[in-house]
Amino acid sequence: EQVIKLSWRAAFVFDGPFETYRRFGYSVIVLSSLLAETDSTKELPLITARIGQSRGIFNLLSSSTQPVGLVTLVDRTKLDAGILENLLEYIIAEGMAIKTAAFHYSASKLTKILLSELCVNGLPACHDFVLPALSALNDYLSLPSSSSITPFHLGHKVEEGFYDFQELYPEKKAAFHRLMDLQFAFPRTWLDVVDFVNEFASVTSPETILFVDIGGGNGHQCEELFNRYPDLKGRVVLED
To answer: CA 102 → CA 11, 69, 89, distances in Å?
Structure first.
C-alpha cells in the first residue's frame, strides 16, 4: 500500500501550475461523469482544493515558517475543529499539505502550486461554474430532447445561460476570463507542431479564409496565429 501511495505521488512530482490545474480542474470530466455515475470521490480533489484556497488554509500554511497548529487553523477558517481535522487528513492524503506532528501542518510543494495565479483563477472556475452543471447531467438526460434546458440551468437552478450568469458574479467572471488568458500561456500550442504556412497558407490572398476558431472565446488562438505569422495574407474568423 505504501509503495502504491509513493508511486502515485511520484507521478506528479514534476507537475507545475498548468498540469496541476488540469489534474484538479478536469478531475470530474471523465467517462464516468459522462455516463452520469454518482461516484463523488472523483470530485473531492477539486472540492477540497477549492476549500483550501477560499478558506485561507493554503495561504496560512505557505506563509508560515513554522508548522501551523489546528487551533490556529480553526481560528483562521472559522470551521468546526473536528470537520477541519478530517478535511486536513484528506488534503494531506492528496499531497496538498504535510502533517509534521499531531495537529500540526505545513505547506508542501503542491500547496504553493495551488496558490499560483493559474490555479487561483482556474480551480474556482471549474468548481463554481462547471461542477454544478456536471452534477446535474443525470437529471438532464431524463428531459425530452426538444428541451432548451441545459445541465448548466439545472445544476445552478437558474434561467440564465453561462455568460449571463457570470454577470451576476463579477469577481468570478473576472477569474474566468483571466483563466482564459493564463491557460494558453503555458502549454505548447498546435502551431508548435503544425507547419501552418506550408500546409495551409503557401498561396493566399486577403480574401482567403485561413483559420476559423469555433468556440474560441476571446480569440487567443487567432491572436497567437497572427503573432506567429504577422505577414499572413487572409482572413481569420472567430466564432463564439
So the answer is: 27, 9, 11
> Which residues, including other chains, have CB under 8 Å from residue 13's CB and lie 6 or more apart?
none
- Beta strand 235-239 with 209-214: parallel, antiparallel or unpaired? parallel
Contact between residue 18 and residue 186 where contact means Cβ atoms under 8 Å apart = yes
What sign for the dihedral angle of Cα 166, 169, 170, 175?
negative
What are 91-112's pLDDT values in tens digits?
A: 999 999 999 999 999 999 999 9
Give me the pLDDT at residue 41, please: 60
The answer on pLDDT for 29 being more than 70 is no
Q: How far apart are CA 59 and CA 179, in angstroms?
A: 20
pLDDT tens for 1-16 read 777 667 766 767 788 8
CB-based contact 97:50 (threshold 8 Å): no
Which of 43, 52, 169, 55 is closest to 177 using CA atoms? 169
Q: How far apart are CA 93 and CA 71, in angstroms?
A: 20
C-alpha cell at 51: 476549500
Give the position of cell 508548435. Answer: 192
Give the contacts of 6 (CB within 8 A, at least 6 positions apart). none
Determine the longest span between alpha carbons in the chain, in angstroms. Answer: 70
Tell me how far apart the alpha carbons of residues 105 and 236 are, in angstroms, rounded to a whole number.
52
What is the value of pTM for the model shown? 0.76
CA distance 153 to 161: 7
